[in-house]
Structure formats: structure tokens, C-alpha cells
Amino acid sequence: MAVRACGLIIYRRLQPAPSSKVTDSIEYLLLQTSYGSHHWTPPKGHVDPGEDDLQTAFRETQEEAGLQASQLTLIEGYKKELHYPVRGKPKTVVYWLAEMKDCNTEIKLSEEHQAFQWLKLEDACKFAEYEDMQATLKEVHQFLCSRE
């Protein structure tokens, strides 16, 4: 049976400088794991019995980043499924897109993570080592730009 996990790609908009494009003011939240290779990832985790995927994404975001669902706005029209092997077993990760309502909200990490960063797209892609996550971040950015 494939492992299933769900999470949120969270972004915030900073006050853009008058000369800059709106999309230049977008930053993405990545968390650095305190286990394994200390990779950077959006908040995500395994689906618990009786939970639906979106409930899992919000619960994991609360557990891993200290963010309540009420502090986020779920963005309609974006959902991404990634499929890749982990230790020889297939894994599916489903991501939704969410915007921080207040860009100054404090992030409170769980023991699963040792650091977090708010990153512009280019840096977020450098931090996210996996190609499918880099592609997803670029896709999200394109999606947000197309809604401006």
C-alpha cells in the first residue's frame, strides 16, 4: 500500500516596493527537517485514520509550523499530487495552496523541524532539493501570477 501524505504550500505577500511587480513580493514557507538529510519542505504529514486529505494538511501545518487554519486562506483552484518512492515504497503527497492572512504571524516549529525560512521563488527552489518540489513551486508561482 502506498504511503499517503498531505500538506500546504504556504505563501505570504510582503508590501511590494512601488516599482516592483506584485509577484516579486511573494515568499514561500519552507521547513527544515531535524531528521535524515535535513531537507527543506512545506509542512506535510501522513494521513491519520478517519481523516480526509485536507484535514491532514491543516493538522500537519498546525503541528509543524504552529499555524491555525483560521490564520490561512485556502486558494481555490490549486491542488497538486506528487508521486515518488521513499525507501523503495511508493509515496503520494497532496498539496494545497494557502496564503497567510497576516504576513507577520509567528511560526512555531515542532521537534520535527529545526529551522524555517520565508523564501522568494528562486531561493525556495534552491532550498527544495527535489526536482518535483522545485517544479511544483514554479507551477504555484505561475498560478499566482496568472491570477493577478
Kindly summarize this structure in a few lines.
The protein has 148 residues and is α+β, with helices and mostly antiparallel strands. It has helices at 53-65, 121-127, 131-147; strands at 3-13, 26-33, 40-41, 44-46, 72-86, 89-100, 113-119. A hairpin with a 6-residue loop joins strand 2 (26-33) and strand 3 (40-41).
Throw out a few tags for this protein.
single chain, 7-stranded mixed beta sheet, Nucleoside Triphosphate Pyrophosphohydrolase, alpha+beta, 148 residues
Report on the architecture of this protein:
With 148 residues, the chain is an alpha+beta fold. The protein has a single domain (7-14, 23-146), classed as Alpha-Beta Complex (Nucleoside Triphosphate Pyrophosphohydrolase), CATH 3.90.79.10. Helix content is 25%, strand content 39%. The chain contains three helices and seven strands. The chain has helices at 53-65, 121-127, 131-147; strands spanning 3-13, 26-33, 40-41, 44-46, 72-86, 89-100, 113-119. Strands 1, 2, 3, 4, 5, 6 and 7 form a seven-stranded mixed sheet that branches. A hairpin with a 6-residue loop joins strand 2 and strand 3 (40-41). Helix 2 (121-127) packs antiparallel against helix 3 (131-147). The longest helix is centred in the last third of the chain and has 17 residues, at 131-147. The protein is globular and about 50 Å long. The termini are far apart. The relative contact order is 0.26. The mean pLDDT is 92.
